[in-house]
Amino acid sequence: MESNSFTITVSGIDGTKFFNLSFRMIKGIKLLLLLFTLVFCTLIALLSIFVDDASDSKREKKEAVSKAYSLEKQLLRSHEFQSDLENNLSQKQQDIAYISEKLKGIESALDLSNDALDLKQRLNNAGLSVAARHQIMQLIPNGRPVKQGYLSSHYGKRLHPVKKIRAIHHGIDYAVNVGTPIYAPADGVVAVTRKSNKGSGNFLRVSHSFGFSSSYSHLKAFKVSRGDYVKKGDLIGLSGNTGLSTGSHLHYEIRLVGRSLNPLPFVQWEMNNFDSIFESNKDVKWDYLVNKIENQIAIALKLSSPMEPISKENSSLLVTSISMGK
């Protein structure tokens, strides 16, 4: 008969002890050992997973901290960039305000209207008007032809100093010393250089733009020849006492297509009193002349494309001439 248990004998100094274990108990112990082993292995696996997760979390945390630091630096740079933009914008706004304020002064001096125009259009108009004025002052006689001397005879009817009869004096006279330099009052081309001991004496005429001409009588010498191009301020001759003359002087005339004009307003004409010429010489069609020059400059500078002809109502240069009441 088979036994359902076995005996374990343990001997020692205290004697011998006997333990009886049944096969059922042994199976239970084996199951407990197996269960313990499974639990232990499971715990080891879970611990390994936890350690891996902790390592991943640490790495992710490190990466997150690095990204946060990088984002913080980018944010700081963005704030600095925004601050620079705001400073630049503030400076630009100050510059625009300064330019606008200065432009108001220019517009006031040029008598320009700035209604319903943006800053760019206002700058274009002001630039066009200034350029047109400078061009006009370069092309049409203005200023004194001599730097020395004084005005000794005016334009108009007078008693001729030699003939002793009343007649129209078509120019003005400057009392100057012989050899006084004479300068071109505008750009032009020398049309006449005529030597003579009669009448106007040594005579010089310069043709300017738009039908204007200037002439110089009783000269001592010419510094230019017929056909020479001259610019405003060029030396063209020396004053003298040739021809029908009672003393050393310069007889100076300005004509428009052959008709004499009073030279004095042209002599007194400067940039700071630009509009004065429109009142003093009403026979000249200043409106057409100024519009022509403005349009030519606008086309050259490409300020507008295409550009409508400037009307009397909006031309800054014609405010006075428009009010002449033709």
From TrEMBL:
One GO MF term: metalloendopeptidase activity
Keywords: Membrane, Signal, Transmembrane, Transmembrane helix
Gene3D superfamilies: Glucose Permease (Domain IIA) (2.70.70.10)
Highest taxon of source: Bacteria
CDD domains in the record: M23_peptidase
UniProt domain M23ase beta-sheet core: residue ranges: 168-263
Database matches in InterPro entries: Cell_wall_metabolism_enzyme, Dup_hybrid_motif, M23ase_b-sheet_dom
Segments traversing the membrane: 31-51
PANTHER family linked to this entry: L-ALA--D-GLU ENDOPEPTIDASE (PTHR21666:SF289), PEPTIDASE-RELATED (PTHR21666)
The protein, known as: Peptidase M23
Organism: Vibrio bivalvicida
